[in-house]
Amino acid sequence: MFNLSPAQQALVDQPFSQRIWLEGPPGTGKTTAAVARLRAALENGIPGDSILVLAPLRTLAQPYTTAVRDPALPSGSPVTIVTLGGLAQRNIDLFWPYVAESAGFSHPELPPTFLTLETAQYYLAHVIQPLLEENFFDSIRLDTNRLYSQVLDNLNKAALVGFEVNTIAERLKSASLGKPAELHLYEQAQECALRFRQYCLENNLLDFSLQMEIFQKLLWPHPAVRAHLSAQYRHLFYENVEEDAPVVHDIVSSWLGEFESALLVYDRGGGYRAFLGADPLSAEQLNPACDQEIFFNDSWVVSPAVEALRATLEASVRQQDFSASPLIPEALEFNFSRFMPQSADWIAEQIRALVQEQDVPPEEIVVLAPFLSDGLRFALSQRLQAAGIPVRSHRPSRSLRAENATQCLLTLAVLAHPAWGLTPRELEVRSALQQAVEGLDLPRAHLLYSITFRKNAWNGPGFTSFEKIQPEMQERITFEVGRRFEHLRGWLMNYLGGPPVELDVFISRLFGEVLSQPGFGFHNSFDNAAVTARLIESIRKFRLAAGAALQDSGRSVGQEYVEMVAQGLIAAQYTQEWQDDSAGAVLLAPAFTFLMMNRPVRFQFWVDVGSRGWFERLYQPLTHPLVLSRRWTPGKVWTDADEEINNRQTLARLTNGLLLRCRERIALSVNAINEQGSEQRGPLLFAFQRIFRRQAEAEGGGRV
Ligand SMILES: Nc1ncnc2c1ncn2[C@@H]1O[C@H](COP(=O)(O)OP(=O)(O)OP(=O)(O)O)[C@@H](O)[C@H]1O
């Protein structure tokens, strides 16, 4: 480990009677110093339960969570580490009788049910379904999940930016160029939001937006709640202030004076979550309320060459003037391939050389793309695994139900629950077998399925024994595979002989007792284990949110869950948080996800540099994160020029953020033709081309 710098130590040593604003670019050691100060607080006898650590995302508070677990610290009451949303939820639970009636709930005498993103989508789907039948959203082609998440986004923006739900459409319309079809969509999106809100109030359901709104409007102003919170929390640590939304800043602003001490950590150049309501300018309003400001400016991360590249790239992206730097070639490598598989070959070979020839630990390498497509993930994982390099991928926006592991687990769950009356399709059973049993290839899976699968075995669909099939078929399938298959089958039969358990418990047992064992497909697969954990979590939360409502219908939670997944209504989004558990493995992730991990690495590979995905916003016809923000002047029209300016700003922020988290070198991979077969010429590629040209000119015509 390292020693704190004098500036960091000075921060740690500030008396615990100060409100401090700590600001600097990423990588300057702010979090390290803040965590050291938290440790100092505990070592100096400040009780843990009087300390509040606030962060915009739980993952951003990870260094604090790890620190407080250190057994070397004095034992005592636990520190509270939460997001404001989490704090809101705890307090709504605690003070429910104070607010249930005034918030307009139909059954204030009954307890509240808190919804996750997934379970909110589930209920929203019930509300929207009849409207879709009335031809709502007919004019656009949008996958239902994206439709639901935009309706929820609008509600969340209202709660986080601080406007009424019934003004969503008016705001969006006033910034629109006025095409009737677009205006109509905004009206419909608002209608959905209002009906969902009404449904929640009638059924004691609280999605994120309602939790935030109730906390801000009803609980926070309530003297009893304020007294409780002020008495409980005396010291505040607020990490990544710039990634939080204005309403959170408003609350902290009015609370700040009540703390004995506070440390607000502001990452200059951040605000990556702008599309989720992050507002760095609003965060700055907290600065004057602090007693002192401290700046850290020197990076512990970037080499001079990376810094030269960062500054040059920023200027090039912003279309400003810049000059060549002799340092840049040290920090930049480049590969041009016609198609993605060739890029994957090149990247895998570079990574292999780094790990195997230069002893670079795999976790010091990340591969980043604007989106991580299946093709790219597969191509890279396969090549790296073949070279014996552990790899791990993170795709927070990928749907859980799209994972093969999920399909396998749920298909086996259907087979183990004939009472649900569901019959899986042939393809599902075959691919579940293939996923579950190691060494089972497609032709053998087909054979095994055709011979052993019976629609009416076990009073439902099931398998007959491998022992019973003809020896020559056994030989073709192989006895090793047969033995594994028998083990799985035996486990399912055994389960069927007893009383059914909840679906999440079933999956956790199936994973632990069979699929994670040697000889089965989930053995030693980080990714499958992660999907299983998320699936279990998703089912558990669904059970908590929807279980009671289902009791009267006679349907089990498991059956409802499986059917909802099949219809695309749930398991459509991971919760947006993740653990950075990539120790020992190369990470493949969308660039944005990596940024939110706040973890510097030595080498970054940027894939698909020609893609416009680095530059453009997602297509969101029902919402507009920039218009639904406090930065937008009501009534102003959003034009193509605004879009272009915003895209450039976002790209500059992104490339800065990535480079500030890179110690040694980035390697660019460009495909002439993307996976969809079109030519690739996005603005990030142009920005690099300008740098290459300038470098070549400076070197008298040579190439970088
Ligand atoms: N005194 C120090 N000596 C050496 N390395 C340090 C020191 N302080 C911090 N670092 C390292 O610098 C890196 C960045 O530190 P840290 O995360 O605290 O910075 P930050 O300013 O909070 O950046 P971010 O906003 O990205 O979290 C980490 O890898 C950390 O281990």
Automatic annotation (TrEMBL):
Domain UvrD-like helicase ATP-binding, chain residue ranges per copy: 3-320
- Which UniProt key words apply to this protein? ATP-binding, Helicase, Hydrolase, Nucleotide-binding
Question: Which branch of life, at top level?
Answer: Bacteria
The UniProt record lists the keyword ATP-binding: yes
Q: Which Gene3D superfamilies match?
A: P-loop containing nucleotide triphosphate hydrolases
A Pfam family cross-referenced in the UniProt record is UvrD-helicase
Q: Where does ATP bind?
A: 24-31
GO MF terms listed in the record are:
ATP binding; DNA binding; DNA helicase activity; hydrolase activity
Could you identify this protein by its name? UvrD-like helicase ATP-binding domain-containing protein
